[in-house]
Amino acid sequence: MISPRLAHAISIAAYAHRNQIRKATSIPYICHPYSVMVIAQSCTCDEDVFIAALLHDVLEDAAEEYSEHEMLNDFGPRVVSIVKEVTKDSSLSMWQERADSYLTHLETASHEALIVCLADKTHNLMSMVADYEAVGDALWARFNAGKDRQLWWYSSVWDVLERRLGKDFPGVADYARLLSMFAKA
Questions:
Q1: Active centre residues (catalytic)
Q2: What InterPro entries does the database record attribute to this sequence (predicted)?
Q3: Whole-prediction pTM
Q4: Which of 7, 15, 78, 119 could form a disulfide with 40 if both were Cys (CB 3.0 to 4.6 A apart)?
Q5: Alpha-carbon dihedral 44, 45, 51, 52, rounded to 10 degrees
Q6: What is the pLDDT of residues 73-108, one digit of tens each?
């Protein structure tokens, strides 16, 4: 059953990302946050985590459509906190700086933020593995960082998630399997 609060979050995510598509595809962007929420549902029953999963890219990619203040009013400080914990620091201009900052933050991030991160990166890996099967090496031109740096990134996130959540946490084995497939791409 979808609660009115979760239904509201789905509507907001769809609205905020309405003009976006997944990188170098024709896939509506909302498919990503919705998938992240579904993956998070295999890890927890916490509705705030589901909502944060739906809204995890809003402050980073669509803050002009839905502000932190609006999120706070609609869903409260816990959801905002989780979303902010998984939002990359846009004040850092270089990809490597943003990646390093994110990884440093993951070391102390809340359990809830780790779940959203796990779900987000799992869906990204799922998408990249599928896209690689469809377009081959042309995939790497879509990203600011090439295959080697992408592999470093997802491996580094894996190191933190596996250590902090534990290898038996739901979804961690799926991430490891996808990372292995990605490394072979």
A1: 60-61
A2: HD/PDEase_dom (IPR003607), HD_domain (IPR006674), MESH1 (IPR052194)
A3: 0.95
A4: 119
A5: -30
A6: 999 999 999 999 999 988 888 889 999 999 999 999
